[in-house]
Structures are given as C-alpha cells and as structure tokens.
Amino acid sequence: MSLAPPVWRPTQALLRAGVASAVAALAAVVLGRPDLLVLAAPLLLHASVAAVRRPAGRPTARMRLEHPAIREGEATRAHVVVEDVAGGETFVLAQSRPQWTVTDPASGVATADLTGADRGGVVLGVGSQRWGRRRVGGGSFAVTSAWAGYRWGPSTLPDAWLTTLPLPGSFDSRAPAPHPLGVVGRHPARRPGEGTELHSVRPFAAGDRLRRVRWPVSLRTGTLHVTSTVAEQDSSVLLLVDNGVQVGTSGGIGGASTSLDTAVRAAGAVAEHTLRRGDRVALRVLASSRPAPVPPGTGNRHLRRVLDTLAAVTPGRTDSPVPASWQVPAGAVVLVFTPMLSDLALAATSTLARRGLSVVVVDTLPDDVPLDDERSRLAWRLRLVERRGLLLRLTRAGIPVVPWSGPGTLDEVLRRLARRSSMPRLVRR
User: Fold this and answer.
1) Containing structural domain, residue 43
2) Which of 330, 425, 348, 429 lies closest to 394 in space, CA to CA?
3) Do residues 12 and 45 share a domain?
4) What does the angle CA 189 – CA 193 – CA 199 come to, to the nearest 5 degrees?
5) What is the chain's Cα-based Rg?
6) For residue 68, is it within any domain?
7) Which residues lie closer than 8 Å to 288 by C-beta, 6 or more apart?
8) Are 334 and 202 in the same domain?
9) Residues 119 and 210 in one domain
10) What is the pLDDT of residues 397-421, one digit of tens each?
11) Where are the alpha helices (DSSP H) in 254-368?
12) Which of 286, 332, 351, 394 has the fewest beta carbons under 10 Å from its own?
C-alpha cells in the first residue's frame, strides 16, 4: 500500500459534516423548514471549528529501543517519540511485525492522546523469539487534529535494528583442556610452578616462599620441607560454525531447532563456559567471509563480541574459505559445529586435522526433519546413508564426532584428547 504524502488533509468526518450541513441549510431555505437549520447547526459548528483549528506543525516520529541487544525469548520496550505535533490531538501507530518478533499490544496498533499524559508518544513492548539481527518497528503512523478535522499521514515510521543474541544452551564440562599453553589459567600444566594443584613435598631450597613450608612434615623429619604445585595455564579454543547448509524448520526459542539454530546456540554455550574458565576463544563462520572472524580473546567483552558475531550469522552463504591460510594458534582445540552435509565442511575439517590440530566435530543435525512427500523422504534417507559413511571415515581418521546433547557433551572427547596428547608419537626422519 502506497502511503499518502505527508500533508494535513481533511478527514472524512470533516467532509461529511461540511457536506451534510450545507445540504441541510439549502433544504431549509428551499423547503422553508427552519427545523432543518437546527439539525444542521451542530454539524456546521463542527466543520467550522475544525477548519479554523487546522494544525500548522509537521509531525515526525522516531523509534528508540531501550535495549538494542537482547537474548532469545526476552523483550524490551520501544519508545516512539512524536515531535512537532502542534494542533494534533490523537496519534495512531500501526507497527509492522517481522518474523520471530512479538509485540505488546499483539495487534501492533497503539494510540496516544497528544493533549494528555501521552503527549511524548507511545511505549510498545517488542520481543524476539529467535537469534539474529532484524529490523523492528517500522509500519506507519498518523496524527489527527482536534475535532477529527485533519489528518497527517499515514507516514512511514523509521525502524530500528534489534540484535537478538543466541540463548546459550545448558552446557558444562569438567574435562581438562587437552593442550594448555598460556602462562595463566586454570588448567594444570605439565611443569611445576605457581598453582593450586599439589605436585609433591620436597626439602626447602633457596628461593622457596615461607608460605609453602609444610610444617607437619618438617617437624617429623627435623628439616624444612615445602609443597610444590603444578603451574596453571590457559587453553585456546576455535569455534567453527557451518552455515552453508540449514536443515529443519525453526520454531523459535520454544519450538523445533534447525541445524543452524543448534550450531549457533551450542557455540554460544561453549564460548560462555570456556571464557568463564579464563581460556581463550576464537570464532570463525565456515561458509562465509562475513561476519569477520573473531580472533582469540578472553573476558566478558570478548564474550559479547562472540555472541554479536553469532547473531549476525546468515544461512546459505557459499563463499569458499581457504582453511590452509587460517591463522590457528598451535595446540588449539577446534570444535566444528556442523550437520556435515557439505563438501566444504568435510574439506575444512580434514585440512585442520592434517595440520596436527585437535579437531572435534559436533553433530548438529536435528533428529526429526519434516518432509512433505515420499520422494523427498526417500532422497533424505539416501543422503543420510552417505552421511553415515562420511562420519565413519572421519572417526577412522581420528576425528571424533559427537552429537550435541548439552551438558557433558564434550567431556569424554576432551579426556581422550588429553590422554592422546601425553602419549608418544611416531615421527618421520
């Protein structure tokens, strides 16, 4: 629907009042009926007062979100501010409702009395049911003058961007990091140093701190003994999200999840858990150069950056990356969140594994994929057979594949990787 140019126009009520009063007055003169003049007087008064009080302002409206970024399932308030409404009396807003958003009121239509407490505009509730960046607000607005004589609009209401951060799924892991590398962190290292985990009790030596003295052992042996600890280091994790193929139908935060929904939420959960342990996290989207990859970092600000990048992921991009040129820290654990249905995901996983990195494939394929007809179901079964063979080849190549199941998903895999890193390896000379 095309919107009318922004100008004050007479309303249907004003036109009806003017025409009805003119017809009644003419009939009273022609027919000699003074009572018709009495009936036409209120309509004539209404038309006259409305015409005299024609507004002179040029109303404008803008939207401001209290929280430009929210989590899935959360809501915020949108303030629609109306300006330059001299002579206006009623403000009407018809807000558009994009997919995955809910509004309060549910119809998206709100009104305000510009002569009373709502003179500044209206306040709407806006909620989001799925991660991503989308425009909210929009729609159109109109302003009506006193006595419903003139109307401005409908005019377009500028919309605003609302970023919906993925709601991280429940995740927790008590497994040690396979390759702790840094100088600080919470993971026990292989060398003695400052930490909290006991390594041994040994005789006192020059440079030892007095707080390390083990008094029970010292009194029993007659010489000073101290406790030595294992140094604590941090680890590096690379999260690789496959957005090239999206399988399933998304039902929002409370419904079914697509493969991309699971990948984004699982990556957010692992990032939040890993960063809270003091480790470093990097993020890269597999099938696209945008959003830009997130380099390794730590802290709450880095977590927000990771979640913002995940919220900007879009499905169906086919930009081919070059895994061989990726700068991945040595010893990093690479977690690939993918349904493993594309050659690109297989190539990236194999390339990173050949570089000597610890790669784990987190399977995000939904358990139930709704299909319409028998032919589609048959084709899907054949595709699953091919996928099963592909996953078997990855497992035989030493790349573990685990389905995402929330807390404890990666515990056993990380323990196996930690044991593997401590075993001797065969090298070519």
Assistant:
1) 8-52
2) 348
3) yes
4) 75
5) 34
6) yes
7) 243, 313, 314, 317, 319
8) no
9) no
10) 888 888 888 776 777 777 776 666 5
11) 259-276, 300-311, 343-354
12) 351
